């Protein structure tokens, strides 16, 4: 029964382990595992204490079968005083074993929890500092899975791996020697069953690992199908495609389940054979050992002691197997987690020269750019532009021309692949990005909110502010009235990603943020197409206030004719380059792309120079 449990553990280890079994080499995995274990360095005191308890409990645990056997012999021989004293010793050693075992367990568990926390923190720090390009290529589902699954797959076994391997190795070797000291013939006989048990465990593990590798791949597909459907739940509802999504999900879970069932059958078979061999060993021990007892060559107590040691060997072996399985799993997880912890972003926000003030003069010099995800697709091809200090500059042109990309480059979400961006004459790459961002503000097309209160969203990232300032900014951004209409006012929680607010409301909150921050450089990626007319007018008014505050360089991706008309400089973008540049009147007179854009929009009766 013990070996069956051991096999179950090792099988479970295999099951769970397969997530970790990626293509990467074992050597590399072990290197990462050692790094993971080295994270436990800070817990050295606790670990030493745990190992001390381990030594005591292992030693006293190994003595228990001795007492049990000799107690039986004293009972048979009717030796009352010895019987009594051995019973007392047995009780004392049982208490000692239990006590130290519990303390060992406690120490290792605490170490495990603390290492888990350290890892989680390291990983989150590693992830959030990655380049924006990194997030373009990774789903948030994948990242959260690393933060939760991989980290616990990695940290969880560290605790019991350390203790279990040592404890079981001691038990195995100790019990082995003690078995031979009782009777070498009996030992040899019992050990003949070990070879087939080892073989079956190994064969089953290999097979199951392969099967589960496939099963986990299917489960991962099910997960990504689910997260895609749930992430786009409004689209799914709008198209009434719930059944399609359910079908897609079910087909993956069904296939995974079938693999799981196959594994269950094989597992049952392996356990059955293992149990027979295990019980067979006991039969052999009793048969041969019993005959030794009958011949008077072995006492009954010694036979019992032998049997108890034999059980220890069995369970220690199975435990070690299961630890080795989960080691593979931990190593795989460790590799994925630590490669991320160690990965240094190309754009380090903390490096470079600090800036305390900015004038707000921006120059793009022959900027080329493509997104990492699509290297074959040039997005900017030699853009040179000058956004003068305190000027309002507009980027217009058809959709896909690269306007938002310029805004991204100015925020340094990405670096140009060629060319330079100069801020007050300094190459932006050499400036400390954190300090630059203090003087820069972005109102993006899709305003991102946190699932906290409106007040917290407006003041996000600000260290110092007063409630009056915040309310004034909101008033100025045409947001105060709608906020006050909520029963909880500024304390209203906006839900995940701000779902409880309309697009126009989110935009006005974003504008309020900027009014509060008063950045020297303001980047606006206007989005009005999704707003209703009333909302649009309110947003427009707020934007106009923000833009006309003065003393600030504004770069806006503009759609509205009114904003564009008043701009100090308009750049018309097409297919990644600037095709026309100047003020409204100059550009209209050119009778080119800009003029066509304006005419098209005016004829549609909209006051936008839109990107159709
Ligand atoms: P515009 O703002 O003028 O509409 P964008 O700068 O948004 O244009 O996009 C320019 C080109 O870059 C488009 O072809 C778009 O598909 C591509 N693009 C935008 N963002 C990404 C991204 N994160 N990864 C890959 N390609 C992108």
TrEMBL record:
* Its membrane topology: Multi-pass membrane protein
Q: Does the keyword Transport apply?
A: yes
User: Which ranges carry the ABC transporter domain?
Assistant: 362-600
UniProt similarity note: Belongs to the ABC transporter superfamily. ABCB family. Multidrug resistance exporter (TC 3.A.1.201) subfamily.
Q: Which residues cross the membrane?
A: 44-67, 87-107, 165-183
- Residue ranges occupied by any ABC transmembrane type-1 domain in the UniProt entry: 50-329
Name this protein carries in UniProt: Uncharacterized protein
> Does the entry feature the keyword Cytoplasm, yes or no?
no
Cellular localisation: Membrane
Complete-protein stretch covered: 265 to 876 of 876
Report a single Gene Ontology molecular function: ATP binding
């Amino acid at each position: 029964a013990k070996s069956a449990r051991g096999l179950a553990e090792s099988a479970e280890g295999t099951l769970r382990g397969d997530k970790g079994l990626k293509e990467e080499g074992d050597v590399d995995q072990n290197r990462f595992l050692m790094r993971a274990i080295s994270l436990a360095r800070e817990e050295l005191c606790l670990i030493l204490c745990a190992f001390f308890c381990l030594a005591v409990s292992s030693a006293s645990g190994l003595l228990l079968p001795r007492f049990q056997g000799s107690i039986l012999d004293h009972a048979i021989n009717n030796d009352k005083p010895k019987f009594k004293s051995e019973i007392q010793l047995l009780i004392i050693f049982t208490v000692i074993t239990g006590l130290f075992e519990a303390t060992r367990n406690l120490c290792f568990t605490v170490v495990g929890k603390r290492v888990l926390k350290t890892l989680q923190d390291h990983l989150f720090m590693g992830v959030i500092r990655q380049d924006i390009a990194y997030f373009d290529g990774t789903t948030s589902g994948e990242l959260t899975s690393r933060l939760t699954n991989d980290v616990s797959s990695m940290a969880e076994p560290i605790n019991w791996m350390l203790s279990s391997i040592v404890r079981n190795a001691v038990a195995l070797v100790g019990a082995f020697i003690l078995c031979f000291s009782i009777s070498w013939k009996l030992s040899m006989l019992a050990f003949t069953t070990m070879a087939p048990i080892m073989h079956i465990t190994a064969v089953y593990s290999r097979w199951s690992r392969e099967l589960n590798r496939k099963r986990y791949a299917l489960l991962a597909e099910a997960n990504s199908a689910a997260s895609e459907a749930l992430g786009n739940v409004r689209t799914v509802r709008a198209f009434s495609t719930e059944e399609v999504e359910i079908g897609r999900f079910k087909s993956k879970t069904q296939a995974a389940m079938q693999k799981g069932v196959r594994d269950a059958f094989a597992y049952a078979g392996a356990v059955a054979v293992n149990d027979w061999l295990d019980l067979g060993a006991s039969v052999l021990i009793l048969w041969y050992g019993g005959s030794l007892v009958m011949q008077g060559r072995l006492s009954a107590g010694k036979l019992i002691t032998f049997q108890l040691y034999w059980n220890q060997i069995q369970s220690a072996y199975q435990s070690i197997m299961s630890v080795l399985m989960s080691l593979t799993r931990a190593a795989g997880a460790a590799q994925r987690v630590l490669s991320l912890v160690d990965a240094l972003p190309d754009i380090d926000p903390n490096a470079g020269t600090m800036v305390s003030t900015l004038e707000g003069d921006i120059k793009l010099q022959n900027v080329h750019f493509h997104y990492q995800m699509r290297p074959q697709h040039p997005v900017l091809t030699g853009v040179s532009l000058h956004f003068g200090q305190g000027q309002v500059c507009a980027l217009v042109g058809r959709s896909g021309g690269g306007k938002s990309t310029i805004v991204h480059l100015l925020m340094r979400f990405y670096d140009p692949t060629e060319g330079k961006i100069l801020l007050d004459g300094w190459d932006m790459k050499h400036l400390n990005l954190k300090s630059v961002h203090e003087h820069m503000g972005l109102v993006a097309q899709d305003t991102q909110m946190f699932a906290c209160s409106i007040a917290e969203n407006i003041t996000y990232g600000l260290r110092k502010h007063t409630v009056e300032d915040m309310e004034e900014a909101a008033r100025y951004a045409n947001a105060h009235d709608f906020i006050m209409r909520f029963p909880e006012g500024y304390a209203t929680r906006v839900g995940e990603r701000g779902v409880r607010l309309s697009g126009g409301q989110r935009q006005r909150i974003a504008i309020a943020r900027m009014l509060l921050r008063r950045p020297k450089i303001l980047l606006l990626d206007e989005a009005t197409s999704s707003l209703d007319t009333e909302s649009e007018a309110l947003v427009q008014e707020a934007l106009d206030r923000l833009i006309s505050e003065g003393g600030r360089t504004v770069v806006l991706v503009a759609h509205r004719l009114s904003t564009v008309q008043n701009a100090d400089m308009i750049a018309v973008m097409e297919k990644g380059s600037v095709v026309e540049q100047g003020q409204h009147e100059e550009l209209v007179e050119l009778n080119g792309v800009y003029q066509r854009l304006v005419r098209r929009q005016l004829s549609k009766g909209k006051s936008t120079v839109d990107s159709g």
